[in-house]
Amino acid sequence: DNPGHIFFRYVVSVRNAAGWVDALKERGIICCRPVFSPLHQNFGLADFPFSDAAWENSVSIPIYPSLCDEDVMKIIGEVGEVYNQFY
Length: 87
Prior knowledge:
Helix content is 46%, strand content 9%. With 87 residues, the protein is mostly helical. Strands 1-2 form a two-stranded antiparallel ribbon. The radius of gyration is 15 Å and the shape is globular.
């Protein structure tokens, strides 16, 4: 309802993000990590446990204006099924 905001990512916190990405891909839902890797990793730095944990446990599921209602319902259903698989 906020006309000044453009939503382009829907990020959810999960256990085992890599497993979620693979499981959803098998179901025809392409998701990704919200970022390629935490910035500190690009510089070879360590001791950023909260950033590492956030990256390891975050998945960005599809959200964009051209999704039709049927696609939205499929995404919701498959995310629910994968949730049941992991929890």
